[in-house]
Amino acid sequence: MSDQNPCLTCGACCAHFRVSFYWGECHCAGGPVPDDLVLPVGPHLVAMRGTESRPVRCAGLLGEVGGSVRCTLYGQRSSTCREFEASWSNGQANPCCDKARAAHGLPPLTPPLQPDLAPQRVA
Question: Cβ neighbours of residue 121 under 8 Å, at least 6 residues apart?
């Protein structure tokens, strides 16, 4: 993978999955997530607006999926978003990342090229 974050040209996960998390992460409970960007989805869970029903698109996603995108509340995002990793960002594929990308017609991310570790002959 390049030094460029692949998420900045994707955004598929933000437009495919429901982003739900414990309500205690909301600003009203002392957490970072803005209250006006969540909806209750259970007794102890909230979801990011835009991800609670189809078609999915998180209220925090700015830009076009598969193009140039960014999260407008990156510093205030939930643990669900903080824990989601692009495929190969930690050296492993993420099937959920691949699934979201496929749903938007994007190919799966590929592992980074490994440098040639073979010893070099000195002439």
Answer: none
